[in-house]
Design a protein that fits this description.
2 copies of one chain form a homodimer.
Chain A lengths: L7 H4 L14 E6 L5 E2 L15 E5 L1 H4 L5 H4 L31 E3 L1 H7 L3 E6 L9 H14 L4 E5 L3 H13 L2 E7 L4 H9 L3 E5 L3 H15 L2 E2 L8 H15 L7 E5 L4 H15 L9 E7 L4 H7 L26 H10 L3 E5 L1 H15 L5 H15 L8 E6 L12
Parallel strand pairs in A: 5-13, 6-7, 6-9, 7-8, 10-11, 10-13, 11-12
Antiparallel strand pairs in A: 1-2, 1-3, 4-5
Helix pairs in contact in A: 4-13, 5-6, 5-9, 6-7, 9-10, 13-14
């Protein structure tokens, strides 16, 4: 019997046509605020000069020779197909659970119901652990392990903890998660199955973050908080690459994104810039639209007030756990993307979120999480006020699976 | 701004390189027992002559011109890439939620722990509604709608009902699901979100099936019970096509499959036969290994007793809801595949299942359902008795997501 043992390495990431991706062209890290440069092969967190977010930078002039539509058509079917613009240097160090390449689902009945002809749902619930958080943590954990990290810690509103625990288990790392005491029960249960150490904290994700900052240095844990290390962001940006690739290297007219920490929108914006330099797309951009819950809307408030940084939101509350983020370190990056794209920022109520979740279930066959429901609720409002027209191609990000939350109907 | 409106049709099923698949080469239906032929463009159920299972048959000599490794590398990224050997004739009638092309994940730490160098997990939990049932029901519902059906009914141990409800909602069909009263709560909740009509039945899936047989004719519902119409099977068989494509058109040495109604194993076996005629693979086959729970093992008992049909299992019980199937209409097809492949059939206990679920979480970063745990528990036993050797390439089917069940640790 012919056995395909040699192909095992090739299927890491389920490559049907296992043409190898080009190697990472990572060159350095750069502060998004003051421009200070850092060595990308040392373990870095935020800018030591000004405390702001560091971005990974690549040799895009080199990458454009191998990262082409033609070569991509033959590569592995996960986010690591874009390896030239991802940070892991040794492909054998990639920890893959099948993250990325999530479906972009035409939702004709749901579109018609709100008067939009071309509505697509980017279903991030198909990722490992059921949310887009798998992209960022799959990337950050693979890179951290490559740089010698053996223990990680992070605060989480829920789904990031699940993803970190899964990738940490696959990598054989020690994982410490800190979550609000009232985190969705499913997230706590998931982390347990992956063998993570769980600490429940009184308060919200920023309070959990304070605990991590206090304890991580004492115990030698590497802090993989959102945008406090440079590589979660790099995993998230693959949503932007995929969107373009799935649309034949064009972009939609409108992207509606449920916004908590904001790495999704920030990551896609970075991806669009890189793709233009790579010659994969032109200069057109979608309108990037931030949706937040009425009970926690720091970015919407800053947008409305014309500010570049958002103040902490007091008494944050919403059923959309991933949007219950009272302060975002990347606030200025989110607001820049929204403004530069001609987008907007708006809030939706808890009732609107719930109704929209029900609509998506019945009209599209997608069991939306509250965050996903918020995008459809926002679309209804934007159509009503004429900000989205019937012939716009609209993409709603469904950032996670509905079944991990309390159901809208029970 | 360049808008990609024209590409909306192309992204049905998220085609990055939207080369169209060839059309279906469906020719007729054929009884697996008596060989009687039926018109594939009429609505059929089982053989009206002998009551056994009908198989869809294709013009494989025609299909082999277009269904090639080269053409496949450019097609949509879901199970509909194999359209020549699927039954929907008009591609615009495909109801797609992103089913299939699930990851085949190298599980090195979990393999090493049991002494197997090359262990792969086929993670079917990444399908819509979190289980492999999406393949069969996506296919059956798309085809039923194409043939004019407006209302469907089915009995289910849980996950099939969720999948039917989601695809029925996307298609705009009336969906009637009948489940045991003690079905996992998550499945009932999911069906509710998709707007299905739910009837809870005292007893097991076969009792629910009796209800469907009683009520469907009265109400004009089309019965999409497993193997009681010919097309669920066709969706399931795409697991076999994918396995070969993901392994570079070879097959593994061993496939361990958690067996309830058995359409997965039966479907893959049919796929292997078709692929050989298509020139995609040779005559080698994996050992097909059935695992069932000690509390419900009709196929294992029939295998051990050398029988071709299985008797109904009395007082079936196991936490693996998908394996709590006391009688399977395709019993002879399952047993034929196991015997012809040189495979075997074995049981595992509830404790073994639970321990294996915990192992997969901690060693592979996969939150296994009980059915998936059963495959790893079976692997441990097979290695211990020398039936699987350390250099075998082994694939364990993880048929659904763990979070839909009571957790192994809480």
């Amino acid at each position: 019997m012919t056995t395909p043992r040699d192909s095992l390495a090739a299927v890491a990431g389920q490559a049907a046509s296992p043409a190898p991706a080009g190697l990472s062209t990572l060159t350095h890290l750069e502060c998004t605020n003051c421009g200070e440069r850092y060595d990308a092969d040392a373990l870095n967190t935020v800018c030591s000069a000004c405390g702001r977010v560091l971005y990974a930078r690549y040799d895009l002039e080199k990458a454009r020779y191998t990262l082409t539509p033609e070569s991509l058509s033959r590569r592995r079917w996960d986010m690591w197909r874009y390896q030239e613009v991802l940070p892991v240097r040794d492909p054998s160090r990639i920890i893959s659970l099948g993250e990325g390449m999530t479906p972009l689902i035409p939702a004709r009945r749901a579109g018609k119901a709100v008067g939009v002809d071309n509505l697509l749902l980017k279903d991030e619930g198909k990722n490992p652990t059921g949310s887009f958080k798998a992209r960022g943590l799959g990337c950050a954990i693979s890179r951290a392990a490559e740089l010698g990290v053996e223990a990680i810690a992070l605060p989480s509103a829920g789904n990031a903890a699940s993803a970190a625990s899964a990738y940490g288990a696959a990598a054989g790392l020690d994982v410490q998660v800190f979550m609000p005491r009232d985190v969705p029960e499913t997230n706590r249960i998931e982390c347990l199955q992956y063998g993570a150490n769980i600490t429940l904290v009184d308060g919200l994700i920023n309070d959990a973050g304070a605990k991590v900052r206090e304890l991580a240095p004492q115990h030698g844990w590497f802090d993989v908080s959102t945008l406090k290390e440079p590589y979660r962001q790099e995993g998230k940006k693959t949503m932007g690459y995929e969107l373009a690739e799935q649309l034949g290297w064009t972009l939609p007219d409108v992207v509606i994104y449920p916004t908590g920490g904001g790495t999704g929108i920030v990551g896609m914006w970075k991806a669009f810039e890189e793709m233009e330099v790579l010659g994969l797309i032109g200069s057109a951009r979608p309108k990037m639209i931030v949706v937040q819950a009425e009970g926690c809307a720091p970015i919407v408030r800053a947008y409305d007030n014309g500010e570049r940084h958002a103040e902490v939101w007091q008494n944050a509350h919403t059923a959309a756990a991933g949007m219950r983020v009272p302060v975002a370190i990347g606030d200025y990056l989110i607001l820049d993307a929204v403004r530069q794209s001609g987008g907007t920022a708006l809030t939706v109520s808890e009732d609107e979120i719930r109704d929209a979740q029900i609509d998506l279930g019945r009209l599209a066959g997608i069991y939306a999480a509250p965050e996903g429901g918020a995008t459809y609720a926002a679309l209804k409002k934007l159509v009503a006020r004429g900000a989205v027209s019937s012939d716009d191609l609209v993409v709603l990000f469904q950032t996670g699976m509905g079944i991990k939350y309390d159901p809208p109907i029970s």
